[in-house]
Design brief:
Blueprint lengths: L7 H6 L5 H21 L3 H23 L8 H13 L6 H13 L15 H12 L1 H5 L2 E2 L6 E2 L9 H6 L11 H13 L6 H20 L7 H6 L3 H7 L11 H21 L5 H12 L15
Antiparallel strand pairs: 1-2
Length: about 300
């Protein structure tokens, strides 16, 4: 039965929209937020509450102004939840509100709502607050072991086990990478996401890091450690696989994943940006349609 909150023409033109899959994704994002709350503090829950309220309110008002029926569904929660898991755990609440507003209004509703956005809304929100409030977004990380506020999320001489168990500062959802891995595996097993995108992306990141480190010794670091640092793994499973902004054909998805990995590693090693994967996703969202020849768009997905 058609959900009343989604116009029938949107579902018809966007068969990739699956409310069941969106519900699973929202639940797993909520799980990452709970893990982040345990590692940090209940402030993470306040960030989540603000994001959810703003996100739902923006969608509700947008639809009411356009005189369209609105009903809350899992699609209303994914962007706010994803934005929170990408943020540092002490981000001021007004920035959470501003970022969520931008992501939902300009990244999603302005393009027609669920299933019609060109760029991943949470990533658009991330880039907006990063450019608008660079000091706040880059300086509200917390050392999980000591509780000290850090200038950034960089860990010195990290261990893979420590990164998996959340011993180093990172975003709300990216601190304990074991949770990210478990969530990613669940998404792949349940076929909520296409396994090709995250696995090709992560494998390519290792290869590119190794290659560039050979050319520029000391600038790119250990390829395996680099795989677990920053938001790379979180983005690989929960962002790059977005069914709306990712390409539809198999070949296009492979090139899409390789492109994200390449841009990420180049920015990490040769630029001054704090996290190249965010820029990489937005760039490949724009490039993605060019990877799909018109005659191949109907290619059957596995």
């Amino acid at each position: 039965m058609m959900n009343k909150g989604i116009p029938s023409e949107v579902v018809k033109e966007n068969p990739r929209i699956n409310l069941k899959h969106l519900t699973i994704l929202a639940v797993l994002l909520g799980g990452l937020i709970i893990v982040g709350t345990v590692i940090y503090s209940v402030y993470v829950l306040l960030m989540t509450l603000v994001a959810l309220v703003i996100g739902v309110l923006v969608e509700f008002l947008f639809q009411k102004i356009r005189k369209r029926e609105y009903q809350i569904n899992a699609g209303s929660f994914v962007t706010p939840l994803l934005f929170v898991v990408l943020m540092p755990p002490e981000l001021p609440l007004f920035i959470v509100a501003v970022g969520t507003f931008f992501g939902v209004f300009f990244g999603k509703m302005m393009f027609g709502g669920l299933g019609r956005n060109i760029f991943e809304p949470a990533i658009a929100a991330f880039l907006f607050v990063l450019v608008t409030f660079p000091n706040d977004v880059g300086a509200n990380f917390i050392d999980p072991l000591t509780g000290d506020v850090l200038p950034n999320a960089v860990a010195f001489e990290p261990t893979i086990l420590g990164l998996l168990l959340g011993e180093y500062a990172n975003s709300v959802g990216g601190t304990a990478l074991l949770g990210v891995l478990v969530g990613g595996i669940i998404l792949m097993v349940l076929r909520v996401i296409d396994w090709k995108i995250p696995l090709v992306m992560l494998a390519s990141a290792v290869v590119f890091t190794f290659g560039f480190e050979f050319l520029y010794p000391g600038q790119f670091g250990d390829p395996i450690i680099a795989l677990f640092q920053g938001q790379l793994m979180l983005v690989a499973f929960f962002v790059a696989t977005d069914p709306v902004t990712a390409p539809r054909t198999v070949k296009a998805r492979i090139f899409y994943a390789i492109g994200i990995a390449l841009i990420t590693i180049v920015i990490r090693g040769l630029a001054t940006a704090s996290e190249g994967v965010i820029y990489a996703v937005i760039i490949m969202n724009a490039v993605g349609p060019m990877l799909e020849p018109a005659e191949d768009v109907k290619e059957k997905q596995e």
